[in-house]
Amino acid sequence: MSIDTDTARRVAHLARIAVKEEDLPDLAKELSGILSFMEQLNEVDVEGVEPMTSVTPMRLKRRADGVTDGDMQVKILSNAPDAREGFFAVPKVVE
């Protein structure tokens, strides 16, 4: 698939990138190269290949999912500019 300068201009506009008019032919050539590489990837036979999440076959470390209180209310509220009754106090914004 070949990209012309008009398509490259439209892609640049959609991507919200500023491309000078004299740079559009080079951008079109680069986009065409990317698309031809993608077409080459379509020729690869991936029948029976499992999807991978990593290049190394390892499982994520897991921990027990337990609910804890944390017991850090005083420590957390010490950073608040205004705390009342164990909560962050904020200015009223709705009448």
UniProtKB/TrEMBL annotation:
UniProt EC number: 6.3.5.-
Origin superkingdom: Bacteria
UniProt entry tagged with the keyword Chaperone: no
Database matches in InterPro entries: Asp/Glu-ADT_sf_sub_c (IPR036113), GatC (IPR003837)
Keywords noted in UniProt: ATP-binding, Ligase, Nucleotide-binding, Protein biosynthesis, Transferase
Database matches in Pfam families: GatC
GO biological process: glutaminyl-tRNAGln biosynthesis via transamidation; regulation of translational fidelity; translation
Molecular-function GO term, any one: ATP binding
Catalytic class of the enzyme: ligase
Keyword DNA-binding found: no
HAMAP family referenced in this protein's UniProt entry, alphabetically: GatC
Family stated for the protein in its record: Belongs to the GatC family.
Protein name from the UniProt record: Aspartyl/glutamyl-tRNA(Asn/Gln) amidotransferase subunit C
Organism name: Rhodovulum imhoffii
Underlying gene: gatC
